[in-house]
Amino acid sequence: MKGKKLAEEHKYVSAEKCFKATLKEFPDHTGAMLNLIIASYFNENEAQADSLLALAGGKTIPSDDEDLQAMLNIINEHLSQSDIQDTLVARMLADIAEDTAAYRAKLDSYVVAAPYDLAAKTALAYTYAELKNYTLADSLSAQVIHEAPLLRAAYYERLSALRDLKRYKEGLQLAEDLLSQNTESIQALMTLTSFQLRLNMDKQALITIKQAAALAPEDNSVLFMTALACHYNHQQNESDRILTKLRNRPDADTGSIALLQNFITDKVSYKN
To answer: Which InterPro entries match (predicted)?
Structure first.
């Protein structure tokens, strides 16, 4: 199966397309559905992975595919860590979400009492990042990654903290680690590009973002990063062309466009 080979190469965007095509022709193809669950997870589509897991609940996994069984077990476990486990605490947090101090205090005390709840720990990392306590955000998300090496949300929290702490070399390594899980992850490719630019790896950054552009050529965020990479590779005409394209879109984000214009005209340095 072509999709399975692509999955083995960690090319999950391409693999997902293959598995979906198989299921369209053979709706009861168990192998395609189970592999699609894994591809969905690594493509950061947890909702799809979760719903497919529910559909696949009664299906028998081929006994000769131990790797598939092992990975599905890991994905299932990681998906269970997407939401705070104590539903009462989750409801209480939702009720006080607008009160930052109360929210942080409640979440902090819950994480102390339930250190095994990785969703809560990841949420707390995000909360501390919002409060500009990037060191604690980094520490918390690093703990989550250590306990669940495939929990992708924690990677993005830590990468954000490392960026704000200006620990770019660590961020570069972590982004590469994340990308190795899915070499076609658009978000991971953009994140890696960001760290490469900040480390003046401009040529490599352009190569990286072009990989993302090949997968999602019309994605606004990909276009934004492509314009940046082109600018730092002295391809100003292409940067300007992309800026114009973004500006003329019906869903144009004026804030992002203004920021991009400042970056590619050197009014503001992206690398600082």
So the answer is: TPR-like_helical_dom_sf (IPR011990)
